[in-house]
Every structure is written in C-alpha cells, then in structure tokens.
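Severity: low
Component: inverse-folding endpoint
Summary: output formatting inconsistent between runs
Steps to reproduce: submit the following structure tokens with default settings.
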C-alpha cells in the first residue's frame, strides 16, 4: 500500500468570526459524481469548535467550489457535554436522513477537557443539522470512566456498527495531564442506542501511547481501518512522539491485527505535514481510494489529501 500526497485542500484563515484557525476531523459526503462535500471542524479565536463544510471537485479535491458561510452544527447548550465544541467524526446516510456522529467536548478543571459522542440529524440534505438530544448518546460509564469520542459508524449486515475512541486515563507529563485512549467497538439496531461490551479493537503497542480517530472500510469480506497514534511526552513538538498514521485489518470488525508498517504514508521532510500527520478519513470515488488528513498543529496547517497507488 502506497499513498501519493496531493497537497492541501483548505486552510482556515479567519474567513469568518467563528472560523479563525484549524480545519480538522473531516468527513466526505458525495453530492454527485462531480462534487463532494467535506464536513470539517474549524475553531474560533477562543479555540471552540463547530461543524461546517466546503464543496470540492470530486476528481480534484484541491479545487474548492464553495465554502459554507455558517456552522451546520453550533456549540451545545451551556453546561451540556458539547458546550465547548462539536467536531465532525462520521456521517451515515439512512434513507432521507443524514446522521452526523460527532465528538462533543467541554472544558475541564482537573483535566483540560472531557469528551463524549453526540448525534445530530439533517432533514435538508446536509445543509443543517439538529441535535437529536442535548446529551450524548455515549459518554462516561462504569467501565469507561474517562470518556469517549471520535466515532466512526456504518450500517453493515443489518446492524449499526461503531468504532470509537475510549479514554483509559491521564498521565502527568511535565506537570500537566495528557490523555491516553484506544479504539473500541459497539453495536446498535437503530443508530441511537448502543451496546457497549468494552471490546478493545486497537490496543496499545508501547508505553504511554494514545490512539484516535478510526476510519473503517469493508470490502471483499475484509475490514480495513486507518487511525492515528502518538506518544505522550512532548508530542506537540517532538517528531518522534507526534502523530503518525496507523493501519489494521480484521475479518469480523471486532478482532484486529495492527499493520502500521503497511500504512504507506508518513510525515513529510518539510512543509505543512512535516511535524505530524493525523485524523485520516478514507473514501472511494470511481474505483480509487482517497485519504483526507491533517498535518502540523492538529489541523492548524490545513486539510490535505492523498490518493492510493496499489
């Protein structure tokens, strides 16, 4: 597997008051064979995140055709789990409805933030979304006490399946708490109520690792997952610790084999994705696989893409 990088699609640069910087956690929805809609999450000057979208030429995603002038999903109500941010994570087309699974978070005191999974639904083809609930559909529990987020959902074999990030604790590094998380699995029959059996899909392979943002494709009886992982010590500035992409395979979607050495893409020697590479989203268009991803600064340097050369 080898990915060929094509460059930046979009960079957030104060286009609107609520769109000051960052363009991370992207999701693709096909409008037609010529146009793709990319949902992503910019941040405002205070660092709070909302959901909006751009539309791009399908064959050349770097050709941006349209920038939506307002959020399609704004901050949650004061005091709710997502009053500090709603971040795009997964989109499922279910009949005439579009289900947006998002990572909601609010600011903490003892730790910087806490995350949970939210669900919003669009009745107008994706131009706007309404929260199904003010509360999360998945959050902290008796067996997952540190929160969860970054969900990826699909309808498969008559079931709704969800791969999501589950926090396993905070470690103190240079006097500050840093989160650790791994990827787990849940199932549902309606996309709303989820059965969590505490099943770990992608577990740690080294001390103080953190794994996040799964994206899954199934074809020919094989599940393929892309994600990103990092260390916990100075990962914002140390390239040996910073985010890079990983890859795993499964025959049942539950038991996975990590094959990070086969991911076929890494940080560049220089430029916008030279320090870190993270938050992959893989999709297919006209028989080719494309990957959206973020680079330096957790998406501050922009949103880019690559094409698979198999």
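Observed output (run 2 of 3):
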């Amino acid at each position: 597997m080898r990915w060929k990088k094509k460059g930046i699609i979009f960079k957030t640069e104060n286009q609107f008051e609520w769109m000051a910087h960052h363009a991370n956690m992207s999701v693709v929805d096909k409008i037609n064979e010529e146009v793709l809609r990319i949902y992503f999450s910019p941040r405002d000057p205070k660092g709070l995140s909302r959901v909006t979208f751009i539309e791009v030429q399908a064959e050349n995603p770097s050709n941006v055709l349209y920038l939506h002038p307002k959020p399609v999903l704004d901050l949650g109500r004061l005091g709710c789990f997502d009053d500090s941010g709603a971040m795009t994570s997964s989109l499922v087309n279910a009949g005439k409805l579009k289900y947006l699974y998002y990572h909601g978070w609010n600011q903490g005191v003892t730790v910087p933030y806490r995350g949970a999974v939210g669900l919003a639904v669009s009745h107008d083809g994706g131009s706007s979304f309404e929260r199904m609930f003010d509360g999360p559909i998945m959050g902290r529990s008796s067996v997952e006490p540190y929160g969860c987020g970054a969900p990826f959902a699909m309808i498969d074999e008559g079931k709704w399946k969800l791969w999501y990030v589950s926090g396993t604790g905070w470690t103190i590094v240079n006097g500050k708490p840093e989160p650790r998380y791994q990827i787990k699995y849940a199932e549902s029959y309606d996309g709303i109520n989820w059965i969590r059996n505490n099943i770990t899909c992608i577990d740690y392979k080294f001390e103080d690792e953190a794994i996040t943002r799964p994206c899954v494709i199934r074809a020919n009886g094989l599940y393929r997952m892309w994600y990103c992982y990092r260390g916990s010590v100075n990962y914002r500035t140390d390239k040996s610790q910073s985010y890079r992409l990983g890859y795993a395979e499964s025959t049942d979607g539950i038991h996975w084999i990590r094959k990070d050495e086969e991911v076929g893409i890494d940080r560049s020697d220089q430029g916008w994705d030279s320090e870190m590479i993270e938050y992959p989203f893989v999709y297919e268009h006209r028989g080719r696989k494309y990957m959206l991803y973020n680079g330096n600064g957790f998406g501050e340097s922009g949103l880019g893409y690559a094409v698979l050369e198999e």
